[in-house]
Every structure is written in structure tokens, then in C-alpha cells.
Amino acid sequence: MKPVLEVTKLTMDFGGLRALDRLDLIVQEGEIVALIGPNGAGKTTFFNCITGIYPPTKGEMFVYPNEGHPVSLKGLKPNQVTEKGLARTFQNIRLFPNMTVLENVMIGRHCRTKSGIVGAVIKDKRTRAEERKIVEDSYTILEKIGLTRYVNEFAKNLPYGAQRRLEIARALSTEPFLLLLDEPAAGMNPQETKALDALILKIRSEEKISILLIEHDMKLVMSLSDRIFVVDYGKKIAQGTPKEIQNDPAVIKAYLGEDIDA
Amino acid sequence: MSFEQIKKSLLVSLWFMVLTFPIMVIRVNTIYHTVEWRWHRMFGVGISVFVLSFLWRYLMGRKEAGLKRKDRGEADILSRSQKLLHEPRFTRPAVIMAGAFIIAFPFIFSIYQTNIMITALIYVVTGLGLNIVVGLAGLLDLGYVAFYAVGAYSYALLNYHFGVGFWIALPIGGGIGMLFGILLGFPVLRLRGDYLAIVTLGFGEIIRLVLENWNAFSFGPSGIANIPRPGLFGVDFSLREATIYIYFLMIALALFTVFVVRRLQNSRIGRAWIALREDETACQAMGIDKTKTKLSAFAMGATWAGMAGVVFAAKTTFINPASFTIWESIIILCVVVLGGMGSAIGVIIGALVLILLPEYLRAFSEYRMLLFGAILVIMMVFRPGGVVSEVRQTYQFKGKGD
Ligand SMILES: Nc1ncnc2c1ncn2[C@@H]1O[C@H](COP(=O)(O)OP(=O)(O)O)[C@@H](O)[C@H]1O
Ligand SMILES: [Mg+2]
């Protein structure tokens, strides 16, 4: 097994608040890893640090692309991180509301294509071919995610569950090898959550993409994950298989606030 | 008409009567030291406000009903009228008629009218340019007129010093405009929203102040005169012919602008601009370089302002900094906002309405600003998306639907 993401001693301070405290985390190729912890534990901050939205105070972050050398994520801008092959979704949905569903996915193709202003104006053969390819590739992704019936709808008019899936579709279209999902099941009903479970497994098996997800739905986390990391107050308090985590006293304490056998 | 509503309207009209009392009722005659009380005017205000408040309530009710219908997924009247704009049965004759009118215009109407039309067309071009920055990329730029000034002075100075002709100055003006777009874009890359608006406003003023005070370079407030009108293989035009020539030149430039903006809008770059407007963080996280995208929007917007500036200098044959005040930026911004951000047709309609209406409503010129403000407020309440809302390209796929 080879790692795809390796984070060591990641620390993030917001003024006096230490949101992440020397956090270590590894995702192996083909794994589904869950990052869990109470609200305010620093999970989203962790995503924001590795995707270049916040510069971490300290620590190392490396990704290992399918071919080529390991790449340090330190100092990269968010778009550069995405180019390296990391894609993410947001806890509070951040679609492009006044663009169509297809266009939202087409945006993801931006960093894998290159026509410029001149090409757009003269519409030469290469630009037209590339544009056609963007549309086709994006549609294929919508087919996989099961959103084709909304293809020409504005993203803002989609039902909530579909919006969450569209975020995943958009992330996939950037051709990542590691997908970061921030609470993908938040606000979904039980059927939608079940469909999401199947979708995440399908993405891993068919697209050969490793997945790191933040989630509060314990049923989903336990059924999906190969390994789980638990954080509280920015510190890692446990890591292991779902079974190990379920019986870990430190985890139970963090979630319930006191000893379980009291 | 319930009792509640009547009571509310009565209160509103009473409020307006009190509010307008000093200006509408009292008139002080300073020569005879008498005060005239015009009570009848107060009743006029009261009655009209009373009626208008009912009209207002009716319109608001319709608007809400429309929104509710939209929630239930029914097409509303407004979006049906929008569809009409894309119905070939309707558009083709409309385009032919508009084309015939545009070609015949300078031959039917006087030079004066043609000149007004040229001004309107200049606003169409600058409006479409600013639409790239504000409407598509969502960057509120209040100093846009600076690029217009740069274009105009480029032609005037190049001509003064080196005798450069109009046709060579036109692309150069566009190029220098673009250059300034990038130069001014760099420092404001990190700003958004209100902060961006304030800083660009400052830049616009700086350019104007430099032109006003750097006498050795720009001849200060006295400006530059005797700028030649555009030529055509050395043909000597009369004033009338020259005006008609500029008119058609402006039509061509406007059509060219529409063509380019439309193509950009539905291209890879155009989508990146819109994504930037919709959500800057998500846009970056999806792999779009924010810096490049912002700069390209500033540069493209400024290019059109530069070219429009060259035509402006050639049309008036005289320029000075007074033509490039903040007020111009505001009008161009109004054109974009009124017409519909992100829509080319909307911007054209906006430019024609905002520039032609005041010209033909000279009789009401005292109330011009008042009307201007009222129209904008009413627009923002009832159609915040502008006259023509943005329409995105749709795609058809075989076997659509899952
Ligand atoms: N931009 C920020 N500035 C200051 N504090 C922040 C910022 N982002 C997050 N925090 C703080 O960091 C802590 C972790 O937040 P977050 O990562 O969102 O938690 P989680 O996603 O685990 O619920 C919280 O205390 C939060 O208030
Ligand atoms: Mg969070």
C-alpha cells in the first residue's frame, strides 16, 4: 500500500485559538477514511489547511500523485492544490447558484483545459473541439452521479440533496485522486443518505479515487470507512478501524462529555 | 379595499404632506417680504400619494404572487416575456426592422439627432465592457471612466505629437486601455465588494486629477483641441458626412463588441468569470486561478473603454478632463445595472433608455435626476436582475433524463 496524503504535526492558530494541534493523518491509496469529532473540533479547518484556503502555522503536508514525485502542499494556492489532484466539497454548500448544473460541472474542467480569450473569440477548431469535450465529459459525470434530469436547471433551483450531489460531481470533474468531503450527508433524509453511501463506494471502486470524509452520521461513517480519525479541540484523540473506535473510551468521553460507566 | 389598507394609505399620504410641506406649500417672496401659502398643492400631494400607494400595493402583491408561482414551479409572465426574446418567429422580423431603422436613421434625422445616437452607442460599448467586469466577473468597478479617458487621451496625444491617424489609434487605444486595466487590476486583486468599489473610485479620480494637473503632458484643464475626425482614404468629409460616417463606425464597433462579449460569455474564460462572481472561494477551490481571472476581466473591460474613448475624442474633436468625471462611471454602471447584469441585450436597452430618454425629455430637465433616481429605485424593487435577466446557454443531449 502506498499513501496518497500524509500530514504530519499540522498546527493552525487563529490568534490565540489553537484550532489544530500537531495533527498527524495518513490516507492510503484506495482507502475511505473518516475524520470525526464534536462540533468545533477543527475538522473543517483541517480541510481548509490542506486545500490552501488557510496557511497552516506549522506542519508538513504531502500528496503522492499516481505518477511522479511527492508534492508538498505548503504554500500552494487553492487552485494549485486542485491542479495537483485534490478536490473538495463544502460543509455549507457552495455551488455557483446562477449557473446551470452542467456549467457547475464544466467549471471543474477548467484546470484540465486551456483555451484562452483569443480562442474564445475566434472559435478556432481546437477551441471548439475542447469545448465539445468539456460538455461531453461533464455530462458523463452527471450521468454517473445521477443528475442528468437537472442538466439545464440553475443550481439554486435544485433540491437540497441534489445540491450536495452536485458538489461531489463538480469536485470529480477536476480529476482528483483524493476527494475531500465535508459533511456530505448533512441535511439529507435516510433514503438520500443511503444513496450517498452507495455513491461514495462507487466513486472509490470505479474511479480509483481515495476518499477522506468528515461526517456526523455515525451509521454512514461506520459502514463506509476503512479507518477513522477522531479529533477533539484540534488534537487527535483516537484512530483505528470502526470497531476499535466504537469501543474507545476516549472517543466516548469526547462525545458524551463524561465517563460512560458513571 | 379593506379598511386597514385605506388607513395605511391615509397615513402614508399624511406623512408625505408633512414631508413636502416646506417645499411644496411655503413660498417666501424675498422682494416683498411676504410668505405665500399654497394650500391647494398640499391636497394635490395628499391625493396623488394616496392613489399611488394603492398602485404600489397592487404591484407588490403581483410581484409576490409571481414569486409564489415560481416556487410552485409555474412559469410566470415575466419569464414568458423573456422567452419571447428567443423565439425566432418574433426575433427575426424584429431584427430586420431594427436593422432597417438603424441604417436609415442618419438619413432621416438631423445631425443633432445622429450625434445623440452616437453618444448612446458609445455608452452601449462602454456598458458592454463594464458588463464584463461588473456583470460577469462581479467586480464592482466605480473608476471605469479612467480607461475611457486613457483611450481618448491616447488618440489625442498620439495625434498631437506623432500625427497618428484614427484607424491606427483605435487598436492602440484599446491596447493602452487593456494595459491600464492590468496595471490598476494588480493592486486591487485582494479586495472585493465595497472595498473594491472605493479603491477603483479613487483610481478613477487619480487619473482625472493627473490629467488635470500635469500640464506638460496633458495640457491640463484646457484640454486638447483640433483632434481629427476619422478619415477614409483621405476623402474630405463635410460635417454632416463625417457625423454619418462616425455613426456607422460606432454601429460596427457596437456590433463587434456584442459579438465578442457573447462569445466570451459562453467560453471557458467567461464561465470562470461568472464562477468568480458567484462564489470566490468555491471558484478557487475548483482550480481556477483567481488572479488571472480577475486581471483578464479588468483587462477585457478596459479594452472596450479604451476604444470607445478613441471614438469619443474623434467625435468631439476636443477633450479635457471634465468629460471624465466620476459621474460618467456612475452612468455607465447604471446602464449595466438597469439593463441587466450579464445580458448583452439588456445593456443595449439600458444604454438607449438612459442616454436617449434624458435627451428627449429636456422639458423635464429640472426633474431629470429625480426621475433617474425614481426609475432606478423602482427597478431595484421590482426587477432587481435588470430589464433582461441573464440567460445561460443550455445544451441538448440524446436520451435526456434518467
Ligand atoms: N477563520 C477563522 N477564524 C477564527 N477562528 C476560526 C476560523 N475558522 C474556524 N475557527 C475556529 O476553529 C475551531 C474549529 O472550527 P471548525 O474547523 O469549523 O470545526 P468543525 O468543522 O470540526 O466543526 C472553532 O473553534 C472555530 O471557531
Ligand atoms: Mg465543520
- Which descriptor suits the 3D outline of chain B? globular
Give the N-to-C terminal Cα separation of chain B. 50 Å
Going by helix content, strand content and strand pairing, the class of chain B is: mainly alpha
Q: What's the pLDDT, averaged over the residues of chain A?
A: 92
How would you spell out the order of helices and strands of chain A?
EEEHEEHEHHHHEHEHEEHH
For the record, the count of structural domains of chain A works out to 2
Poorly predicted runs of chain B are none
Pairing-aware structural class of the strands and helices of chain A? Answer: alpha/beta
- Major beta-sheet overview of chain A: 6 strands, mixed
The CATH homologous superfamily of the largest domain in chain A is termed: P-loop containing nucleotide triphosphate hydrolases
Spans of chain A with pLDDT under 50 lasting ≥5 residues? none
CATH architecture of the largest domain in chain A: 3-Layer(aba) Sandwich
- What's the N-to-C terminus distance of chain A? 42 Å
Number of domains of chain B: 2
Bound molecules: adenosine-5'-diphosphate, magnesium ion
Could you estimate the helical fraction of the residues of chain A in percent? Answer: 25-40%
* Name of the CATH class of the largest domain in chain A: Alpha Beta
Total helix count of chain B? 16
Count of DSSP strands of chain B: 2
Instruction: State the largest interface.
Output: A-B, 49 and 34 residues
User: How large is the radius of gyration of chain B?
Assistant: 25 Å
